[in-house]
Amino acid sequence: MALIPALFDATATVSHFYAVSMSNVAYMVAVKRTSLLFGVVYGFLLFGERHMRERIFGALLMFAGFVIIDLTA
């Protein structure tokens, strides 16, 4: 049963390093950070998590902080 999550994790790791070798690291990480927003939405839609407004606000705040750091670096 643990094989499926392990395969997804291995695929994510290989994809990460492949993307780093192909592009600018800052741009690749910026795209990767959008997964934070998808995770919040999936939690609401698939798992029925509550307090969606607070979760989206927190995710957007963290993403905005990353964008500001990325733009000023």
Brief digest:
The protein has 73 residues and is mainly alpha-helical.
Please describe what this structure looks like.
The protein starts with a helix and ends with a helix. The mean pLDDT is 86. It has helices at residues 3-22, 25-32, 34-47, 52-72. The chain has a domain at 23-72. With 73 residues, it is mostly helical. The chain contains four helices and no strands. α3 (34-47) runs antiparallel to α4 (52-72). The chain is flat.
**Could you say which structural class the secondary elements and strand pairing correspond to?**
mainly alpha
Mean pLDDT rating: 86
Give the tally of β-strands.
0
What is the number of helices? 4
Biggest beta sheet summary: none
Uncertain spans: none
Query: What share of the residues does DSSP label as strand, in percent?
Result: under 5%
The helix content is over 70%
General form: flat
The sequence of SSEs as H and E is HHHH
**N- and C-termini, Cα separation:** 43 Å
What's the layout of helices and strands?
Layout: H1 3-22, H2 25-32, H3 34-47, H4 52-72
Helix pairs in contact: 3-4
Based on the model shown, name its key terms.
73 residues; mainly alpha; 0% strand; flat
